[in-house]
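If you are new to this repository, start here. Below is one unmodified record pulled from the training split, so you can see the exact layout before writing a loader.
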Amino acid sequence: MRRPFKPHHDGVSVRLSHDERQFLLGLPQLLEAVDAEPGDAAHSRLHVEAYPDDAAAQLEMAEYSGSQLAEARAGDRESFVASLEREVLTPEEAEAWLTVIGDTRLALAARIGITEPGWVIGDEDDPERMTLGFLTYLQDQLVTVLMERL
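And here is the target side for that same chain:
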């Protein structure tokens, strides 16, 4: 099996098919939908409350850092989309990829009820678990290449 990422002197070389890249193009849209659904389990997983037992402290935390986190996530999603067709990612773009892939994995896991480590793909006819498995593989491969660059 070919590795989807390889070290490159300018960052990370991307070796994904057109279809794989088209699939990944939908990740930011999925995350935007999650952001718009406060009652969704995926929303709760991505927007963890720092002070769940102290409403005043949570409100203060949200006032100070909520917009910064939202802006950082939006920037990562924009960078991800802008770099999706590139053959080589800068280290910053690779980090944006990790954020988008990681957030999508968390959202999908929450939606299908995975709350503990050690899950298995299981049913190969389950598109959500297959998607989660593919994203886990990509994330692992990208982390491995980034670690090799250190």
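Two things worth knowing about this chain: Residues 55-83 form the longest helix (29 residues). The mean pLDDT is 90.
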